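Re: [ENG-882] Designed sequences occasionally contain unexpected residues at chain ends

Forwarding the minimal case from QA. Structure tokens:
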């Protein structure tokens, strides 16, 4: 099961904080993701999107992009406002894997490709998963939310041409 606890205090100086968010203008519709990595006191910002996607895919892509940024294993705290992402990685994924990526109702799990990639990255790094409340004034979370929405809007505008 994925970790959702705190790292030991003596390890905190080696921990990298990551804030992620995804959005979709329509579901499905044009969507985007964004992440902010606090690396050695400097922000690393990544974002991207797709013309036709879902909010859940963008939430997953945000964290996959952040974790893929690192080529060697790291200690990370990932902050997300997505219940789907958090419950998926910390609760549902082990059972999905046991059932061959089927839900408890026997249906095929959505976004299998992204869940498999996220599972690999979660094993590669030491990740602690933290829930943040959306639109609660946490500046980093507000930043990635706004960047994802702006990126999705640019994709929507571009696709209308």
């Amino acid at each position: 099961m994925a970790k959702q606890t705190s790292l030991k205090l003596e390890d905190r100086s080696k921990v990298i904080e990551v804030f992620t968010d995804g959005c979709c203008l329509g579901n499905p519709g044009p969507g985007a993701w964004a992440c902010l990595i606090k690396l050695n006191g400097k922000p690393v910002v990544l974002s991207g999107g797709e013309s036709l996607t879902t909010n859940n895919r963008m939430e997953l892509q945000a964290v996959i992009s952040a974790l893929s940024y690192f080529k060697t294993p790291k200690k990370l705290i990932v902050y997300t406002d997505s219940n789907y992402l958090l419950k998926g990685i910390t609760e549902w994924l082990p059972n999905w894997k046991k059932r061959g990526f089927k839900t408890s109702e026997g249906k095929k799990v959505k976004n299998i490709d992204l869940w498999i990639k996220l599972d690999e990255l979660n094993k590669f790094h030491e990740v602690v998963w933290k829930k943040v409340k959306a639109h609660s004034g946490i500046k980093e979370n507000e930043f990635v939310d706004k960047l994802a929405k702006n990126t999705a809007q640019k994709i929507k505008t571009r696709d209308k041409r």
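QA comment: On inspection the terminal residues look reasonable. Residues 1-5 have pLDDT under 50 and may be disordered. Proposing we downgrade this to a documentation issue.
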